[in-house]
Amino acid sequence: MGHICLQRILKLLLDQAKRSPRRFRADQGPRSLFAGWTAVVPSLTSMRLGKLASAAATWALALSAFALPAFSPQVAEPLIEAKVTGDAGKRQLSVEIAWPSGLKPRFPRDESGAIFDRSVAIAGAARTPFATIESRPDWAAECHREGCRIAYSVDFGKGIVGDRRGGWGFEEKQGIVLAPLVRWLVRPEDRGARGRLRVDFAGGKHLEMVSGVMDGRTNSIDTDLVVMDGPHVVLGDFTHKTIDLPGARIDVAIGTGARGVRDDDLLHWIREGAQDVAALLGRFPLARLQVIVASGGPYAVGSAVTMGMGGASIFVVVGERTRKADLLRDWVMTHEMLHVAFPNMGFRQRWMEEGLSTYLEPLLRARRSRHEPRLVWAEFVRAMPQGLPKEGDQGLDRTFTWGRRYWGGAMFWLHVDLEIRKRTDGLKSLDDVLRAITARGGNVALRWDLAQLFAVSENATGTTVLREIYDDWSGRAVSPDLDALWTSLGVRPEKSDRIRFDDEAPLAPIRRDLTAKFPVPALAATRP
Length: 528
Ligand SMILES: [Zn+2]
What we know:
The chain has 528 residues and is α+β, with helices and mostly antiparallel strands. The protein folds into 4 domains: 9-67, no CATH class; 79-232; 238-341, Neutral Protease, domain 2, CATH 1.10.390; 344-520, Neutral Protease, domain 2 (Orthogonal Bundle). It has helices at residues 9-18, 21-28, 55-67, 139-146, 156-162, 181-184, 263-281, 324-329, 332-341, 350-367, 373-383, 402-423, 430-439, 450-461, 465-473, 482-489, 508-514; strands at 79-87, 92-99, 105-106, 115-122, 131-132, 148-155, 171-173, 176-178, 187-188, 196-202, 208-211, 220-224, 233-236, 239-245, 248-254, 288-295, 301-307, 313-318, 491-493, 499-501.
């Protein structure tokens, strides 16, 4: 289950956080949708003042000044505003965009012919009526110079049939349409362009837009332009629920597909997954998460994916005949919640993300008495050899196979965890690294680099274990002796996938600690 992100996200989000709240509010205040031809944010100190020729823009500027009694020099920030109308029956979107000058627009790649009826009206001094883009070959350059309006339609039904792009195309799962912005929204040609994006969606009663970047809203995106590179946007007919956790909220959008469990059972399942992770971290790793549940199909819990991109979301499919007991036994939600707690590390280190979820998920469920330690180790013994390097392996950063990504990554984190525990006489562990990541604000909505991760780990454990093992395993095929490792942990494989524990083994105390119950409140110990 991958999660997807973009390189610039951390920097941009940090920059955004540094902006003054007043400035931020002013950006959202006086300019109504499509108020002026020029959608550049008016700025009091901007050299663009003379260019804001239209009365609407001048009026917007005046209002902006009113909303901004004190100010500091700011660079005007372009705003892309899109009005989108969805038609569930036709399976189409109508898109109209107020495009700011200063950015050159580009339509998404479209091999399946889903985007049609493209037209453009140039704004600014060159004001023109709408005309097909075919009749204005320089339309993109004109939009760049003058600003423009762009109108077109998207046949997402056609896109679903024609797209063959894995995680980035239109896709339909049990009545919910995955519609990444990168697939259908006109974007700046310059992928590093700064600015804001606003999308307002109207789809009638049975077609809503939901995404992790919407922060509890539906049908309305208002965020940094960076999310255009692929947030988790879905279209569908949803029931909306909320799970409140201490300091955090999970918004749950449940699709209308057939299912054998009640909404309350779904919410209970999501909450348990969240609490597995919160029990480790001391709190939920971020203030707000979107969970999208599709239902239908043969599997108890089908495909699941967690996405970051400035707003965390989990998309998961629950089977038609899934029972409550299946959800209580399920591991997928805990796996995805662990993704939520870990920062995006980029494509080469995807194995770190998947490996962490694969390694910690069974341990966390065992610590909350939701899983048996014996079964945890039986699975490790059986499955972890799939993570060993094969012929031609070039290390975890350069070998992109399923086995290396999931179980190679799990094997890595097991070794990191054991080594931290050994070097600190059991005082520190991988748990401390994860708590420190949360304390530093790390989560799937943000991008971290390795240096940040290593620094946090060193600080949390007083060791350089994570960096050392990464340096060793990332660039070459390292093949640890797993049988010797199981023996030292006192894990003895027996017939038919069973295992027996040997408490005399040298690392048996560490093995017991790995699945030791989370501490109960101290009050229990002081009772007579
Ligand atoms: Zn995963």
